[in-house]
């Protein structure tokens, strides 16, 4: 009895259990709390990516059943890279990336500067208004613009018809309603939709970067007699290069994966009649779910991934050195 009292078992005592629980919390609890992210990433992120890479070397349609695929090596990639429809969709994607991406930044940068310098009192309200299109559903936006671009009684055609009566603009604008849903015009309609939706997002990015610029620089420039335009050119633009690198990278990634807007505007399968609006993502979708060629669709996805990597690298050559603080 005396021996048991002098040497109690720490595991059975309340203090021993509390110490073990405390050690368990310090050692394992952080991993338990972050495990849901890694579990979901492994199931819905890493596994689908690796499976798509594997299936890009196989010939398989879902109707064949799971596991009934045939190894074809680089056959899917060779077919994709020699497919005229794929290159047509890539050209449409790059065209939309240029003519919808560049205007976003040409509008967003000076707009953010004006909001910061002139509309500082209403900054919160103005940024909320410009940011609203970005958080609106892409499908809802495409449906609205589908109505606006209607050939008959569409608001855009009504505005063009009204401007046609003006003395100078009447010579430049057509005198008939424009059919925006043909191959020759659909890309311009899509570019307008993308610019309208994402300009506010880029404005918010550039506004946050401008707010981080020290006010002393603008005050010193004002004392030296620099105008607002000179301040924008010699202070704002050079110091915005890191944010330009980030924003342009996001634009490249987003435009190369453009899908919802053209898919809704073209009513899904209507892209066969309007190939000018078919993007690479749409062509990949049709290859997978209309023609049920999953191997070729997976190869398109990875070729598109390579194109995004190349364009991002070129963007890094333009803006990356300054963004990293180089001379």
TrEMBL record:
Membrane topology term: Multi-pass membrane protein
Pfam families: BPD_transp_1
Annotated Gene3D superfamilies: MetI-like (1.10.3720.10)
InterPro entries listed in its UniProt record: ABC_transporter_permease, MetI-like, MetI-like_sf
PANTHER family: ABC TRANSPORTER PERMEASE PROTEIN, INNER MEMBRANE ABC TRANSPORTER PERMEASE PROTEIN YCJO
Family: Belongs to the binding-protein-dependent transport system permease family.
Protein name: L-arabinose transport system permease protein AraP
């Amino acid at each position: 009895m005396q021996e048991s009292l002098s040497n109690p078992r720490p595991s059975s005592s309340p203090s021993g259990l509390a110490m073990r629980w405390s050690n368990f919390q310090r050692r394992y609890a952080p991993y338990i709390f972050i495990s849901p992210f890694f579990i979901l990433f492994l199931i819905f992120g890493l596994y689908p990516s690796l499976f798509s890479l594997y299936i890009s070397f196989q010939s398989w349609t879902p109707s064949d059943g799971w596991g009934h695929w045939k190894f074809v090596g680089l056959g899917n990639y060779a077919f994709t890279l020699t497919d005229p429809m794929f290159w047509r969709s890539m050209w449409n994607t790059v065209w939309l990336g240029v003519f919808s991406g560049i205007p976003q930044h040409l509008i967003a940068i000076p707009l953010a500067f004006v909001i910061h310098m002139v509309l500082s009192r209403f900054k919160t309200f103005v940024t909320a208004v410009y940011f609203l299109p970005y958080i609106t559903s892409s499908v809802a936006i495409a449906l609205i613009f589908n109505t606006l671009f209607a050939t008959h009684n569409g608001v855009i055609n009504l505005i063009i018809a009204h401007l046609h009566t003006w003395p100078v603009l009447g010579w430049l604008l057509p005198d008939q309603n424009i059919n925006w849903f043909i191959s020759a015009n659909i890309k311009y309609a899509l570019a307008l939709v993308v610019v309208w939706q994402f300009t506010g997002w880029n404005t918010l990015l550039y506004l946050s970067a401008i707010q981080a610029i020290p006010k002393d620089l603008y005050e010193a420039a004002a004392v030296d007699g620099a105008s607002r335009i000179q301040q924008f050119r010699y202070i704002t633009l050079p110091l915005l290069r890191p944010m330009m690198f980030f924003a342009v990278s996001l634009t490249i990634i987003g435009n190369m994966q453009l899908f919802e807007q053209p898919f809704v505007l073209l009513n899904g399968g209507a892209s066969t009649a309007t190939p000018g609006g078919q993007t690479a993502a749409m062509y990949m979708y049709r290859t997978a779910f209309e023609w049920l060629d999953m191997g070729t669709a997976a190869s398109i996805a990875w070729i598109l991934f390579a194109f995004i990597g190349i364009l991002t690298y070129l963007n890094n050559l333009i803006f990356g050195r300054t963004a990293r603080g180089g001379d």
